[in-house]
Amino acid sequence: MTELPALIAAFTTMFIIIDPPGLAPVFIALTQGMTPAQRRAIAVRACIVSAVLMIIFLFLGETVLGFIGISMDAFRIAGGVLLFLTALDMLFQRRQARREDSAAEGQAEHHDDPSVFPLALPLIVGPGAITTIILLAGQAEGAADFGAIAGVLMAVLLIVLAAFLAAPAIERALGKTGLNIVTRVLGMLLAALAVQFVLDGLRGFGIGG
């Protein structure tokens, strides 16, 4: 897992799942009317909370699966199916609509600080991200691998933070059409990665060589 290709694959998967460019307009909607300082504080808090949640799932997720009797191969197949459904949502723009609905609900319930809900959970650390983190943890073979995965997660979160801080500029630069194109391209890549997870799980059961 410490090899460069594996790290690039892990980074790509997490980047596609979290989709920082897609989160930028949601962040703008949640922080409308706030000062730049307030926006920065919310962005930083959301990423810190997300980092804590990711580390918890990285180190304890597989233990929880073992406790309830689910093998990693079974989880890979289930996770691959879930990620494929997420990819379909991205391709047909259903994912962004749900995110905006969740953002609107969170804004109604938490007028002052949306950093924990809905930004950190479930918009950044959603079901797809949790699934991917546990799958990556299942590939780790030692402390170095876990450290490498944690580094990948933090790198993605730094990009999320940068996207939040630059959200107004990103929205102006890409426009709605540009954001839609980026989301669909990422959806195609995620679909391919999801199929790979399913194939890996089937191989673990001795199916498909």
UniProtKB/TrEMBL annotation:
Its main location: membrane. The keyword Transmembrane applies. One of its GO terms (cellular component) is plasma membrane. It comes from the Bacteria. The keyword Cell cycle does not apply. The chain crosses the membrane at residues 6-30, 42-68, 74-92, 119-140, 146-167, 179-199. Keywords: Cell membrane, Membrane, Transmembrane, Transmembrane helix. This is UPF0056 membrane protein.
